[in-house]
Amino acid sequence: MSKKGKVAKAELKIDSKAPKIEIGISKDHRAEIAAGLSRLLADEYTLYLKTHNFHWNVTGPMFNTLHLMFETHYTEAALAVDLVAERIRALGFHAPGSYSQYAALASVKEATNVPEAMEMVRQLVADHETVSRTARSLFPAADEAHDEPTADLLTQRMQLHEKTAWMLRSLLE
Questions:
Q1: How far apart are CA 102 and CA 82, in angstroms?
Q2: Which one of 24, 83, 105, 119 counts the least CB within 10 Å of its CB?
Q3: How far apart are CA 48 and CA 87, in angstroms?
Q4: Which string of DSSP letters, residue by residue, matches 124-163?
Q5: 93 three-state secondary structure
Q6: How many domains does the chain have?
Q7: CATH code for position 65
Q8: Of 25, 20, 38, whose CA–CA distance to 142 is shortest?
Q9: In whole angstroms, what is the distance from residue 77 CA to residue 170 CA?
Q10: Where is the Ferritin/DPS domain (predicted)?
Q11: Measuring CA to CA, how many Å separate 22 from each of 18, 25, 53, 77, 92?
């Protein structure tokens, strides 16, 4: 297991107040999937925050186009984090919800400065591709556990992030 996997496992907290969960997925499989989804949640939230930051701070000749596009992207991301967190909860675990947890779990790096507009686009292309890879990496665990709801969620997230990366990449040509 990777270092990030160990971090997620170590911080993963089962909901001790919840009744026993009998959904046809073992507790160990649910824990592995929830740990992976915690990494996905961290990536999604970090990308949300970064996109919102770029929305506020973009300037230049493409201001209006990028400002509106980034708003669409961060609005979708706000809905996505809820879907991922709710799946973690459905599996019987607490979803991470702090900046420090996200920083430890995320592969997407936060923006600590304000790059020029096309550099924002380049970073967001890479970030959407990163989130897609994170989602893709969870399929073996979901498949092994026959966890179709998680697999469906992952497919939807990958479709969105790959399409968004393609659209942003088109601006760089």
A1: 14
A2: 24
A3: 18
A4: HHHHHHHHHHHHHHTHHHHHHTT-HHHHHHHHHHHHHHHH
A5: strand
A6: 1
A7: 1.20.1260.10
A8: 25
A9: 20
A10: 35-173
A11: 12, 7, 41, 30, 10
* Bridge partner residues of 93 (DSSP): 14
pLDDT at residue 26 greater than cutoff 60: yes
Give me the domain span that covers residue 131: 23-171
> Of 71, 44, 45, 76, which Cα lies nearest the Cα of 58?
71
| Rounded Cα distance, 131 and 122, in Å | 15
pLDDT in tens, 36-76: 999 999 999 999 999 999 999 999 999 999 999 999 999 99
Closest CA to 75 of 58, 54, 52, 96: 52
d(Cα 131, Cα 126) in Å, to the nearest integer? 9
Q: What is the pTM for the complete model shown? A: 0.89
Residue 77 pairs in a beta bridge with: none
Contact 95, 81 (CB under 8 A): no
